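Document type: protein sequence-to-structure record

Subject area: structural biology

Format: plain text, a pair of labelled lines:
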Amino acid sequence: MKRILIVEDEAAIREFEAINLKRVGYNVAEAGSGEEALDIYDNDVEGFDIALLDISMPGMDGFALCKELRKRSETLGIIMLTARTQEMDKISGLMMGADDYITKPFSPTELLARVDSLYRRVEMHSAKQAVASSDDITLGEFTLNLRRRTLLKSGVNIELTQVEFQMIEYFFNNPDTALDRTDILNKVWGSNYFGEEKIVDVNIRRLRKKIEDNPSDPKRLVTVWGMGYKWNSH
């Protein structure tokens, strides 16, 4: 069963989201606050695939909730919902561990498309984890294990979200090769993704914070100007 946690303080919007997601087969749990959402998540025994988080909530807002949920799970799919149009709100959510964002108001079609797209990525991640080869890919001080879905830097584990792992896997399968943003977007988010290419750039920034000694002067995950990004293996 596809399970999703909806966190929205406005009852009418929460009901709109729940009805549309139930209609296409999602098992929905609802919370009216960040605090209630954490309580539901922590006491749930089946586990959730996706969390749909409103940013603007009294008490614990969506940013704080995203951070707490990401501490609990690197594989949970997280989508932020916001009525704001400022770029920093979108970027802040992604930097805190969200996988995607939707700006209100949105149509049922967009909601379902974005949720379904993220669910497919989460499901694909789980399937690969179950069947992947145990062989490692080692590039310099980094070792990627496809079966355990882990990345080690000089023997130390680096925690990655499922989106971050998919990006690293793509780079490790194409070392020293410039990959443009569209290729990365299609490979990780899918060719039918509704969003914008800048989600790639934000996730690159997030990855650099985890893997680079000096994220402002990257040596491994470098920018290829006018093209995209590449992984330097030497």
Q: What stands out?
A: The CA atoms of residues 17 and 138 lie 43 Å apart.
